[in-house]
Write a structure and sequence with these properties.
about 130 residues, mainly alpha, 2 domains, two-stranded antiparallel sheet, 6 helices, about 5% strand, elongated
Length: about 130
């Protein structure tokens, strides 16, 4: 449970970062939001739910941070990475990110997601995946 200035982009990010955990959304729009009001609404929704929802505690970064493709590097990719100079390592990381991107897109396609998703190409050089806004 959180708040966003761009709900559409936030939902797309959540769907790509945690595709197996995204199933429904509840939202409320506000004309004049304030940090105090948003925090109170969040506390009220958590109270209504009865507990701190999964993803709002220790797993919050999995919803808010870019996908770290380096965490899914294969032993062969790691060996290729270790054998390269800096430019070669960037190329390996981009390929790892592209592989993870393809896996995410395939999983979303299985769920019937048809919207276009474009990941930030600059972050792929670091082995990170986040949607380009």
């Amino acid at each position: 449970m959180g708040f966003s200035r761009n709900v559409y982009l936030s939902l797309k990010q959540h769907l790509t970062r945690r595709p197996s955990l995204c199933h429904w959304v509840k939202l409320q729009t506000l004309d004049r939001p304030s940090r105090t009001l948003l925090a109170q609404m969040q506390a009220d929704w958590i109270a209504e739910y009865g507990a701190l929802p999964a993803g709002n505690g220790a797993d919050l970064s999995g919803w808010e941070q870019a996908i770290d493709a380096k965490a899914q590097i294969t032993p062969a990719e790691q060996a290729a990475f270790d054998a390269e100079d800096e430019a070669g390592q960037i190329k390996v990381l981009k390929n790892v990110a592209r592989r993870v991107e393809a896996e995410v897109k395939a999983l979303l396609e299985q769920r019937g997601v048809t919207m276009g998703l474009r990941f930030d190409p600059k972050l792929k050089e670091q082995g990170l995946l986040t949607l380009k806004s």
